[in-house]
Amino acid sequence: MDIDVGACLSALLYEQDTVSIPGLGSLVGQYKPAAIEHVQGKISPPSKEWTFNANLAVNDGLLINSLMQKRQLSYAEAEKLVEDYVTQVKSALDRREIFIIPEVGRLYRDFEQQLRFLPDNTNFNPDSFGLPTVQFYPVLRSQRTQEPPAPELQPSRNLKRSAQNWFRQYAKIAAAIGSIALLTSLYLLLRPGAEVPESPIAEALPPSRVNVSPSSEAETIDAPAELPEALGQDEDNDPDETGTNTENDTESITMAPEQKYATIVIGAFSNADNVKRLIARLYESGYEPFTDKKGRLTQVSVQMAYENESELRDALQKIRNKFNKDAKITRKGKR
């Protein structure tokens, strides 16, 4: 019987705030008010923000009843469809694949085998259905006020106004020169090959917090306590090595015996949305991201295999150029 359970699930999200997938977990919706992002120049309408709770796996009957009503099925037939759908999801997750629920989001497992959910941008709020995200740009206006001619009988006032006009005119020139000098200084500091002071480093990560169990030959390197959160904001994806942004294979790397590996920390965030956006960008770029809680921050890292130090330095430089210039190698070892 060819019935798309995922499509029926997405239709329920317009009507319900919590929908259970029996044996897997529940999707929980929360109202998100309209927001203005001044940096990106976007106005977002009110919506529902969805999260996935694997602990709420009890059957609430909504999905099965919806299949019975819309597809004219018996309870046993609808229940069997849901069970087959859950089995399909779990099989994909066990193969370390990302399972896509159309218009809803993606389910995947991180390096700690924890079930994670990355929502799509579909607006399931019926009150604001169809309202798009609006792009806005600041309006720059140039206004020139023409001063009326001063009477000839007031020379002191005329002199004062002349001085003010001179100051306004040359203040703009001085500001332009200062801006050019500032941009030149930034270029000299940030150009390739320039010596930039190292960022402050925190205590070394404890081995119990690393997602992959290293061997006794592993070498631990200090990692930054918190990297800039601006990394998590939306921005145009840079093309990858082949020149296009494509959907990458998310199969985990199988390391050969005595294979060298390294863990690279890219960012640490207190905002969950920034974590989700960075994970999505890393998956699209072909990396295997994983997360690690450090107090109130969530640290996002990638793990990769390498043959020699030159290859590792090249990989680190690519990650710095594409994601964050402060990315650091926090662990090296062999398997």
Describe the structure.
The chain is an alpha+beta fold and 335 residues long. It folds into two domains: 5-135, no CATH class; 207-334, 2-Layer Sandwich (Alpha-Beta Plaits), CATH 3.30.70. The chain is 30% helix and 22% strand. It is built from six helices and 14 strands. The strands form four sheets. Strands 10-14-11-13-12 form a five-stranded antiparallel sheet, with helices on one face. β1 (18-21) and β2 form a beta hairpin. It is flat, with a radius of gyration of 28 Å.
List strands and helices in order, with pairings.
Layout: H1 5-12, E1 18-21, E2 25-32, E3 35-37, E4 42-44, E5 47-53, H2 62-71, H3 75-94, E6 99-101, E7 105-109, E8 115-119, E9 134-135, H4 155-190, E10 219-220, E11 260-269, H5 272-284, E12 289-294, E13 297-306, H6 309-322, E14 328-334
Antiparallel strand pairs: 1-2, 2-5, 3-4, 4-9, 6-7, 7-8, 10-14, 11-13, 11-14, 12-13
Q: Order of strands side by side in the largest beta sheet? A: 10-14-11-13-12
N/C terminus separation: 46 Å
Strand content: 15-25%
Number of domains: 2
Order of helices and strands: HEEEEEHHEEEEHEEHEEHE
- According to DSSP, the number of beta strands is 14
Tertiary shape: flat
In angstroms, what is the radius of gyration? Answer: 28 Å
Structural class, by secondary structure, is alpha+beta
Poorly predicted parts: 196-255
Report the helical percentage: 25-40%
- The whole-number mean of residue pLDDT values reads 76
Largest sheet: 5 strands, antiparallel
Number of helices: 6
